[in-house]
Amino acid sequence: MTETQQIEIPRGHVVITTYGPVTAETMVSYGDMRVRAHSLGLNNVVWNVVHGHLVDKARNEAVQQMLADPQAKWLWFIDADMSFKPDLIDKMLSTAFSMCPWADIVGGWCPLRGEPYLPTIDTGTGTWEPIAPHDGPKEVIRTGAACVLVKRHVYEKMQPPWYGVRPAPRPLDMLYEFDNYCNIKFDGKNPFLKYSEWNKLLQCATDEGGQANGYTTVGEDSSFCDRAKALGFRIVVQTDAVCNHIDRRTITPEDHLNAMKERRKRIRAAAGIME
Amino acid sequence: MKIIGALLARDEASPDRYLERSIRAALDLCDSVVVLDDGSTDETGKLAHDIDPKRVKVVAETDGAGFWGTDESTPRARLWELAVREAGDDGWILIFDADMQLLGISRDDLRSCCSTKVYNSWAMPLYDCWNDENLHRVDGYWIGWANPRVWLARAKPTPDFVPEWDDKAIHCGHLPHSYPIFAGVLPGLAAWRHMSYIKPEHRLDKAKQYMSLDKTLSEQEMAHAASITDLEPTLVPIPPEKVTRILCGIPIRKPPVVLNALMQTLAWQRFRDKVQLDFLFVPNFAESDPFYRDSMALLEDAKRDMPGNVTISTNITNPGNDYGDGAISRQWSKPAFERLAHIKNGIIQEALRGDYDYLFLLDADVFCDPFTVQSLLDSANHERYLANPRFVPPVVAGVYWTDWQWHYPDSTDRVHCGPQVWLRHPYKLDGRGWSETDFRNALVHRDRVQVWGLGACTLIPRGSLARGLSFDYVAELPPGPMSEGEDRHFCERASRLHISLFADAWPDIYHAYHAQEYDKIPEMIARLSRNGQKSAHFGDLVSARIEVLEPVTDQFGRVFNLEPEWVRGRLGSMDVLPQIEEALGQMSVGDSRVIRVHYPSNYILPQLSLQTRLIRLSLFDAKPFGLPPTIDREFFVGGASGRKIDTTTMTQEQLEEITDDGNPAD
Which burial class, exposed, middle or buried, applies to A130 when counting CB atoms under 10 A from its CB (0-12, 13-18, 19+)? Predict the structure, then answer.
């Protein structure tokens, strides 16, 4: 990691945040990366695991710990279900302090758990976008918090609690989130679709489209990005900083690329083109 | 299956009206026409009947007063009843007025659309023609062109269907309000030409008629009626008559031998539709260039000789004096890139000022075959832009292959030529789910491929320029080889503006990049020259588009509509359903046709097996099989089979075994 060695990295915290157990794969990756950091002479990094119910509580706790350390200039969250190569630290720190020093928040390339395993990259479309890994840094309006480095001044300017779910604008969004969750958990098949009540719910949500209620939520990571953008901070996802997502199996960038290829193949096949 | 035209008419016999034209147009598409004469006081009924006594059935309402203005729903219900009786249970009804003519679809295609097993009706836009039958109004309430409505419907959408009508004096709807509409939109440029607003006197009559009904009209209907007398409506040509204006902008610093070839290849561009190609040449010479005067004289001659308007820009200044010259390859520096970016931005401004539909940015040493710009239009889905100018087509670049480094004969290095489109910065041919081999193969196969980098032969739609696409530098891009390239910043900006970029590898294009290649120009120009084929023969290369007109289901049962797909290949060995290939073989170049395709039981998508769908095929071009210029030197093509071997995937030793001397071009 020659690039990181040549640049000055301020003190910071690397934190695994979780509301449940940490996967073995994450701990192995975390340990290997820590060894690499030491071998590179990065001795001013605090390594930590913070538990909390739910994950937003753990994140807020980690922020408080980092702010209590006056020398710490950054906080890097890693979720407890991520695996990665040791040189992830090279990619993240060199992006944050050399390649894109102007970036206030730097994320990694992390796939979601449901097909087509989209990375948490939103460059402005309002949805997660099929941007492939290993394509350099991308400025975004929103990313996830599974692997994200936030510089200290962001938290200092933002009112606590920094992380928290917030009401979504419409009931429809809740159904969408629910459908998405089912697709993730049941291999793309929402088991509730077969019941007529689902359509009734959908119709109600559509009819009530403009009304907010207290039961719908936006995730704590998206909410944090929205607040950061509103304060004028800039967010970058380094697509070279690749993470895998541990579910019932390990979801890798290849899963995303293959899913996109397969989707394209299916669309072409529906048009009568067999490739 | 019958298609029955259904017309409600009243006092339309005057010679300056459109009754005969409307009925004849309907007869071209339908089996017969039913006319309900709503109490006419003129010869409307007789005129309609005499057009074709066997195929036009006229029924007269007998109370003499007519219903329009008091109770339109009664005659509408009566007309529907008559048309359903004529059409039968499996028939279709095309409802029209006495001032409407359906354009842009053939009888066969209309019948094919009516064979749908999915939809029960079809919608189409309507052009409110104004002053001229080829101009239509698009401002304010005049939105029929952008909002297709149903005019063609199955006579019996369900076995137990009972038609019910809104009780209104006018505008009660052309279809029963109880009709369970599940409609597709007729493909291509199918639309109504609505003619009763063409003449000022007819508009005045219409306005008076509406004003006399003011108590029965809604606020919106009143506002619409009032706008009939607007003094300065916005009028544009109807899509089939629109002349697409393209500005070809070229920064020029080349000797006459190159410019002569360039002018020849620009002048021979051929188009299927109405296109006006204008030229903007931006001299970019250094004072020390020995060819400066001769080349400038040639540009002046082009003003006289070229088709279209030619402008030699004197407004775009050329800052700096770094041209990126180099011995083996270009030695680009930041000032050289900035110089080009400045010139290209100036060309963009000219395109915006001139209100061109597209800007075609070309390098002066790039020679295109006669169908290049047409192919770029096709790849940009220009037809959709014609139908709806709000659609912003993607940016499309014609692909060419170049030896980016000159290969000296005594050099032992093997350098492969490369395309000027790429997937990742800087100039990487892999990524985004592609391996380099697959990506190169797709381009050699002449596919239309989404890319994230392009330049030098680029068709840019006005909508993209209006969004802010330019060659201005994007701040804070990470450094890397060639990171200052103006094309890279253009593409990065496009990405941030969510503008898609596509590579179109269909045209044959030659890039005379090195001065050492200028000797080959005459030979290459002769090769690029070709006449258009009228149809495709077995083994020819074809370029086509496939639009699935009906929704399909995915493996989870979700229903969705497909975007069009582009397909290229050799007729007889294409990876498409046999019916598609057979139809392509029967079509003429430039034609479109609606056909039904049948997915076999063992189809790769189980949810489509044993199903049929309507698709619209457009055959854009056909030409004899051949590889694109320059890359053809890197392929060995078997004489008997025509199979291609990409030598970049083989070692020199392997190649020598296959080709005797290791030179695939021999």
Answer: middle
CB B168 within 8 A of CB B77: no
Do residues B128 and B45 lie in contact, with contact meaning Cβ atoms separated by under 8 Å? no
| Cα-to-chain-centroid distance, residue B525 | 28
Terminal-residue alpha carbon distance, chain A: 41
- Asked if the Cβ–Cβ distance from A136 to B424 is below 8 Å, we say yes
Instruction: State residue A106 phi and psi, 5-degree precision.
Output: -125, 125
Q: Architecture of A2-165+219-270 per CATH? A: Alpha-Beta Complex (3.90)
| Beta carbons of B466 and B353 less than 8 angstroms apart | no
Residue ranges making up the domain that contains B489: 242-528
Indicate which CATH number applies to the domain containing B148.
Answer: 3.90.550
Q: Which residue has 């029965």 as its token pair?
A: B216
Select from A260, A267, A273 the Cβ nearest to the Cβ of B433.
A260
> Given pLDDT bands bounded at 50, 70 and 90, which one contains residue A190?
confident
- Per the domain annotation, does B367 fall within a domain? yes
The whole-angstrom separation of Cα B33 and Cα B255 is: 66
Contacts of B410 (CB under 8 A, 6+ apart): none
Q: Is the dihedral of CA B567, B568, B571, B576 positive or negative?
A: negative
**Are B594 and B473 within one domain?**
no
**Averaged pLDDT of chain B:** 90
Chain A residues in contact with chain B using a Cβ-Cβ cutoff of 8 Å: 99-100, 102, 123-125, 132, 134-137, 139, 188-189, 193, 257, 260-261, 266-275
Please list, in sequence order, all residues whose beta carbon lies within 8 angstroms of the beta carbon of residue B156, skipping any fewer than 6 positions away.
B84, B89, B90
The last residue of a domain, from among B600, B623, B646: B623
Nearest to B567 among A123, A139, A273 (CB): A273
Do residue B41 and residue B169 come from a single domain?
Answer: yes
Q: Which residue has the tokens 């604008």?
A: A169
Residue B299 in contact with residue B281, Cβ under 8 Å? yes
CA distances from A117 to A23, A174, A177 (A): 19, 20, 15
- Kind and range of the H or E run holding A245: strand A235-246
3-state secondary structure of A204: helix
Polymer length of chain A: 275
Who among A137, A257, A271 is closest to B565 (CB)? A271
Instruction: Report, as an integer, the average pLDDT of B51-56.
Output: 96
B326 and B272 in a common domain: yes
Sign for the pseudo-dihedral over CA of B435, B439, B442, B444: negative
Mean pLDDT over B286-302 rounds to 89
Q: Tell me which of B493, B528, B563 is where a domain ends.
A: B528
> How far is the C-alpha of A15 from the C-alpha of A17, rounded, in Å?
6
Q: Which part of chain A has CATH 3.90.550.40?
A: 2-165+219-270
Do B174 and B107 touch, CB atoms closer than 8 A? no
Find the residue in A nearest to B435 (Cα): A257
- Global pTM reads 0.90
pLDDT of residue B106 exceeding 90, the answer is yes
- Chain A residues lying within 8 Å of B433, measured CB to CB: 132, 257, 260-261
The ipTM assigned to this model is 0.86
The amino acid sitting at B515 is A
Please write the tens of the pLDDT for every residue from B446-466.
999 999 999 999 999 999 999
Q: Is the dihedral of CA B235, B239, B242, B245 positive or negative?
A: positive
Instruction: Give per-residue pLDDT as tens, B341-367.
Output: 999 999 999 999 999 999 999 999 999
**Quick check: is B59 in a domain?**
yes
**Beta carbons of A181 and A113 less than 8 angstroms apart:** no
- A151 min Cα distance to partner chain B (Å): 18
CB-closest option in A136, A189, A271 to B546: A271
Provide the pLDDT for residue B73.
85
d(CA B213, CA B394): 47
